[in-house]
Sequence to fold (373 residues):
Amino acid sequence: MLRPQLVALVTLIGSVGVTNAWFRVSCTDPLVQERLDPIISPGVNPSNHVHTISGGSNFNPTYTYNNLRASSCTNCLVAQACLQRPIPAMIMLTASTGFEQLLDPKTKLFEPVPDGGLLVYYQNRGDGDVSNGGSGLKAFPPGLKMITGDPKRRTKKFPIGLGTQDELRERAIQWSCLRFTVGLPGYDDNGTGFPTTDCEGGLNARLHLPACWDGVNLDSADHVSHTAFLSGLDNGVCPTGFVYMMKLFFEVTWSVDNFSGRWNATTDKWPFVYSHGDPTGFGWHGDFQNGWDTTALQNAIDQCNNPNDQTGSGVTEACKFLTVNTADFANKCKIAPVVNEAINGTLTKLPGCNPLQFGPQDATIFTAATCPQ
Ligand SMILES: *[C@@H]1O[C@H](CO)[C@@H](O)[C@H](O)[C@H]1NC(C)=O
Ligand SMILES: *[C@@H]1O[C@H](CO)[C@@H](O)[C@H](O)[C@H]1NC(C)=O
Ligand SMILES: *[C@@H]1O[C@H](CO)[C@@H](O)[C@H](O)[C@H]1NC(C)=O
Ligand SMILES: *[C@@H]1O[C@H](CO)[C@@H](O)[C@H](O)[C@H]1NC(C)=O
Fold:
């Protein structure tokens, strides 16, 4: 089922500063939610905290590009189909984002917060794009890994607009408190961490991935330095020698409004935390490992952004290089968690060792061996 938030957000995007996505891919019900983190902690099972995973069904603690390409389905709507549907192109990505939980002020128990699924925006941005006079954007190279955000973060460290890569990385994570359902204006974070009021229309969180690649390395020791942000985050130039890629942007809206009767914004603190023990919001993060058919994506970039037909307005169905599934169909693509633990229902603690750490100093990442609890 296409959840209502996915539909509603399309009209909200203008109000939260997301414009001109070239095309958008919905990943509705997640592929799986579990404590795996194959980019940061390859092979580690279980990893530190719960993630929500979207993409190809061959996701596992150590998957490769070729594993992903051999997936039988994906929960994203532009996809190689599963369940014997004969589809020519195999197209998939794997993305993981945070998992949000309510800490009930009265019961002190954690409960998962539902979300409206992941929206992945494919944006043509930066001086490398032909619309800006550049020579064209490149598809992600096979197996490229990228991250944005840092689960250790509990505060903002740089003045907005400084323009260094560290500051751009910080600015790449944004949220809005949506209140349109009660006729109130929503508000954006501006680097302030989680909201302070009820968000009657949900909590909308967004994340820019780097659009520049060093042209050589698919990953790096810090998972960051082989990539870079455009100088203006959403536009501008790549650092010298970097390749201009299509730009990815993730959006998730958590249905925090489902819990509005459970807390009082006057007397209780914002009760929602991320699964990495983060009550501030600054540690939200998202990862991407490329599983696209590079040729299909490059063809789409080069030939489907035509202002004279529907491909120019991002209609994925109009682009012959993309295969579009229905939400009903994509939602059947699920895999069993390999980590055997409860993450849904009411919990006395967050899965793994993730005590709440309020900052402002960076949080400590605990392992089972160093866990203070
Ligand atoms: C964020 O900044 C915008 C633009 O300066 C401003 O209109 C808005 O009120 C700010 N929001 C908050 C929560 O401070
Ligand atoms: C959340 O709230 C929406 C709207 O009130 C409702 O349709 C949906 O079923 C709720 N979801 C859960 C998991 O409670
Ligand atoms: C929230 O708390 C304030 C202060 O105690 C109180 O005036 C208000 O009625 C409460 N709101 C609800 C919905 O209970
Ligand atoms: C937890 O619940 C969500 C939403 O109901 C579901 O998509 C997910 O598969 C569940 N995860 C587990 C591990 O049961």
